[in-house]
# Entry
Amino acid sequence: MAVSEPIMLSLERFGEICADPAPLIYRRLFAQHPEFEDLFAMDTDGGVRGSMLTTCFDCIIGLTEGSRLPRFELQSARLSHQGYGVPESQLDDMFTAIRDTCREALTGEWTPAMETAWAEMLAEIARMGFTPA
Ligand code: HEM
# Structure
């Protein structure tokens, strides 16, 4: 399990600095993957993007708490997103975009412990794939 405290600290500060991180996170994701933006063409009010981001935050928080729910959430997303045209191997880029946006928002307050904890968590997420627990 990833070290939880630095991740939660970083997210708390992120929330204080940035009331609505969704536009920043999706801007970063779409800058890296312009092809993903078109997939949300029907999401005119941002509701789907907001709900997807909430699920991702829930996964992150669940992982820091040692919950097994994120594993199922991720497996389900891997399956459903094949239907949306998102390759399984690129699903994790959403979590990287969240980490990178959080790190940028925190700037000087981002600590080596946060860097390590997030790297461990991203590696843990990448390892999950379809592999049973
Ligand atoms: C690069 C990464 C990702 C892309 C491009 C992507 C793309 C999409 C798209 C296009 C939809 C809308 C599908 C539709 O209704 O037609 C969607 C919905 C959703 N995604 Fe993702 N996704 C990504 C990563 C993730 C991850 C990592 C999770 C969670 C672990 C996730 C959870 C969800 C959920 C829960 C919905 C349904 C939201 C709702 O309608 O309430 N997605 N995603």
The mean pLDDT is 93.
